[in-house]
Task: inverse folding
């Protein structure tokens, strides 16, 4: 039994947006994901930290979830900026139920208990969002979602999974970082960074929190083992 995490699988079995055009890091990525997920068992938990499917709605994402469903590990979904299929948790749960998919759950305004740990998470906030209107509203909503999730942990030590990096070379999101500090988050994993910008990642210990990038192309599509 172990906990694993990876982000940005960017599956596109129906949506026809294969990431293979982005060069060698993405070559044959669906087969490589399949190979690495085959090593996980039904006793394992895998956090998928956003950008899981290019599907624009649940029907278009169905083939991607069917692909993931064949691997028996429990999967916790975090929302990414490209997860256009994301709907309300009740609609998504009903869809998965209808299709007979039993391995998925959501990390969204909640926390999941794993051994002694609380697993928390949300999409988060990134610099590029500030170009868009109503950015303060979106930031506040994400901060509230993160705090709801962190508060649900109670006294348990916290592992936090965000889609957007809260820290990046030349950028920090003080609202999100403040919450990680307030709730003494032990580890914060994030995705979203691909290709050349990976070199601008910030990893390692900052205060009480260890940061790591877990985007699929960065990990070579092998999920990072977080703990037993
Ligand atoms: Fe991504
Ligand atoms: Fe992303």
Result:
């Amino acid at each position: 039994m172990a906990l694993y995490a990876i982000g940005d699988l960017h599956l596109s079995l129906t949506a026809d947006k294969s990431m293979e055009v982005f060069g060698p890091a993405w070559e044959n990525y669906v087969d490589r994901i399949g190979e690495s997920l085959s090593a996980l068992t039904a006793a394992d938990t895998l956090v998928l930290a956003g950008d899981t499917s290019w599907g624009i709605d649940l029907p278009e994402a169905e083939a991607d979830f069917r692909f993931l469903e064949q691997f028996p590990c429990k999967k916790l979904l975090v929302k990414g900026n490209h997860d256009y299929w994301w709907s309300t948790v009740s609609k998504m749960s009903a869809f998965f139920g209808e299709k007979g998919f039993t391995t998925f759950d959501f990390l969204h305004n909640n926390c999941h208990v794993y051994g002694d740990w609380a697993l928390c998470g949300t999409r988060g906030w990134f610099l590029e969002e500030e170009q868009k209107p109503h950015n303060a509203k979106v930031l506040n909503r994400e901060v509230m979602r993160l705090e709801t999730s962190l508060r649900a942990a109670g006294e348990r030590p916290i592992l936090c999974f965000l889609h957007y990096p809260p820290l990046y070379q030349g950028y920090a999101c003080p609202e999100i970082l403040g919450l990680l500090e307030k709730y003494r988050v032990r580890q914060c994993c994030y995705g979203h960074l691909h290709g050349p910008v990976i070199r601008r990642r910030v990893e390692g210990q900052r205060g009480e929190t260890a940061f790591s990038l877990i985007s699929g192309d960065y990990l070579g599509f092998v999920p990072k083992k977080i703990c037993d």
About this structure: The longest strand covers residues 117-122. The domain at 3-227 is CATH 3.60.21.10 (Purple Acid Phosphatase; chain A, domain 2). Residues 50-51, 80-82, 163, 192 surround fe (ii) ion (ligand 2) (CB under 6 Å).
